[in-house]
């Protein structure tokens, strides 16, 4: 296996862990609102988000499925509602229910869609890199003439 393939598969494996709500929940160690608030860590994880906050941006979260990042949360925000509002095409947000309410088929479909989307994005990145190298080579040849 090439190093690139190995790297992509490692990344995929890591990202696939976030298909599980409990793994997303575990990323919320520094969430600013209490569990009693509507916008709490469990609700955010349930709605597909992982914590991606930093010191500068302490309430940033990102959807594991569509990669949409949201911040500037209010403690009374509804994570599902905000996810659907800001990422209306996200297949996970459209599920609109906690993981425990998923059927095995639904869970498998979401997981497979995620894998397909991830691999397509990686493939596009590789193609873009090849195109960039190609353009560099064409430029180099034209300079050397
Ligand atoms: Zn999403």
TrEMBL record:
Coiled-coil stretches: none
SUPFAM superfamilies: Inhibitor of apoptosis (IAP) repeat
Pfam entry (one): BIR
Annotated InterPro entries: Baculoviral_IAP, BIR_rpt
Residues making up the signal peptide according to the UniProt record: none
Transmembrane parts of this sequence: none
Assigned keywords, A-Z: Metal-binding, Zinc
A GO MF term: metal ion binding
PANTHER family attached to this UniProt entry: DETERIN
Protein name: Baculoviral IAP repeat-containing protein 5
Provenance organism: Zophobas morio
């Amino acid at each position: 296996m090439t190093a690139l393939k190995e790297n992509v598969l490692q990344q995929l494996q890591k990202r696939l862990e976030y298909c599980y709500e409990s793994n997303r929940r575990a990323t919320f160690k520094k969430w600013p609102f209490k569990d009693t608030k509507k916008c709490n860590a469990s609700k955010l994880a349930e709605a597909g988000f992982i914590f991606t906050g930093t010191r500068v941006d302490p309430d940033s979260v990102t959807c594991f499925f569509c990669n949409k990042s949201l911040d500037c949360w209010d403690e009374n925000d509804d994570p599902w509602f905000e996810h659907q509002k800001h990422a209306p095409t996200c297949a996970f947000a459209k599920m609109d229910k906690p993981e425990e309410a998923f059927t095995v088929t639904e869970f498998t479909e979401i997981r497979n869609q995620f894998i397909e989307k991830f691999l397509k994005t990686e493939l596009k990145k590789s193609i873009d890199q090849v195109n960039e190298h190609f353009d560099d080579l064409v430029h180099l040849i034209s300079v050397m003439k």
